[in-house]
Amino acid sequence: MSCTFFKSEPPPEEKAHQLYLQAQQLLESGQAARAAALLGRAAKLAPGNGEILLAHGRALVRTGDKGEAIMSLMKASELLPDRVEPETTMAELFARSKKYASAIEHMEKARQRVPEDMEVQRKLVGLYVQAGRLEDAERLLRMLQRLNPKEVANIVLHADILLRQGRQREALEKLQEAAAVAPDNFEVHMSLGRHLVESGQFEAGAKEFEVALGLKTGDTTALLELGNTLLKLGRSQEAAEKFSAVLGKQPGSVAAKVGLAYAYLDEDDAEKALAQVDDALTNDPKSIEAHLAMGEIMLRKKLPQEALRSFQRAAKLNPAGTSAHIRLAKLYRKLGRVADASAELELARMYAPQSLAVRRMLAAIYVESGDNLTTAEKFIDEALASGIDLEMLKLKVQLLRQRKQYAKALLVLDEALAIAPEDKQLKLMQAELIDAQRAAGSKKKKKRRRRKPRGPVIIRPDF
């Protein structure tokens, strides 16, 4: 008589733990999608395990599945009432979608859970800055500075606030001070890079992001920032490599797909760009950046009405955002809808009256159109007064050229070349300016008038 032994199945909790461990290994090797699938199975086996639900939510964030990620993280938050990670992860997720009110709500919950967590408080300051709540940001930062006046992260946050207040020169000085104190600090180089890009110093900004990547190899945030900066420098193929590297780590990254779309667009491949944006919108139908990119693609395909609809969707998703309003204004001007263009510009100014970015874009629109040059010059001078701004120097050159003030334009151009001597656009502008000055000089040369011959001089005798 033979006996048959059946191997007993491990209990669900033990099996869930095994799946959790396997998923952690997959995450370490960059296989977020497979890890998320295993963690999903583990969560079903152990629905009361907060750690598994938290890991599942984080893995879903990496795959780009925001909806499912939020659901898992909310359950994890209920099961782990003393932990900040579920709330901070949700806050960061909402911040990426520019839903700052929701992001702040979750970060404030995290702060309430662990009031002594300085990192949570710094993240909250950052969110206040992004949302434009500068008074709240300054108040909380002052408290952090009192606790630790030499903390580099606090210096970086102070610089972010100064930049939002239009005090660009002071912001850069703060960051350079931080970089000198902590040359190996990843966040310092990232923030310095962003500030340099904001001021139009794209080459210098790209170098800072490269330094950051040297400190954290393969960091997706640094890769995205570097890719976007390379796009501004016209180096679309290099930018595409950076975005592809991000997608290798995070296949569902909407930001990387949008960046790759712009890189393809720069290479005049609108169809490939369209495929990337379609994927991005499938992953996140409410992505503002994806709708803006779709609008740009439609413009390239000479479909202005489709572009208009895409920009309007972006503006509807984030009415307080300025990018959609500015792009709508530009398109309305092209379509001859001057009143609509003016309305969009006023909206942008209303939502962000002190925003340097808005003023820079407004100045660019005015200079390109040749209208409101006095206002454009005011905005340009304000931007330049706050610190070095290569893009504003270029605009100033264009403005002075339109006024045919060639000598002044060349002086401003020399200042710009001192900042970026290898900038190809500046060199081209210099050559064009010299030609225009010569042409204007030759026209001013008047023909020498022949002197009319005088008649004979009659000397009358004095009788």
How would you describe the overall organization of this protein?
The chain is an all-alpha fold and 463 residues long. The longest helix has 21 residues, at 424-444. The protein has a domain at 330-386. The protein has helices at residues 12-28, 32-45, 50-63, 66-79, 85-96, 100-113, 118-130, 134-147, 152-164, 168-181, 186-198, 202-215, 220-232, 236-249, 254-266, 270-283, 288-300, 304-317, 323-334, 338-351, 356-369, 373-385, 390-402, 406-419, 424-444. It is built from 25 helices and no strands.
Quick rundown:
This protein is an all-alpha fold and 463 residues long. Helix content is 75%, strand content 0%. The chain is built from 25 helices and no strands.
Question: Topology, please?
Answer:
Blueprint: H1 12-28, H2 32-45, H3 50-63, H4 66-79, H5 85-96, H6 100-113, H7 118-130, H8 134-147, H9 152-164, H10 168-181, H11 186-198, H12 202-215, H13 220-232, H14 236-249, H15 254-266, H16 270-283, H17 288-300, H18 304-317, H19 323-334, H20 338-351, H21 356-369, H22 373-385, H23 390-402, H24 406-419, H25 424-444
Helix pairs in contact: 1-2, 2-3, 3-4, 3-5, 4-5, 5-6, 6-7, 7-8, 7-9, 8-9, 9-10, 9-11, 10-11, 11-12, 12-13, 13-14, 13-15, 14-15, 15-16, 15-17, 16-17, 17-18, 18-19, 19-20, 21-22, 21-23, 22-23, 23-24, 24-25
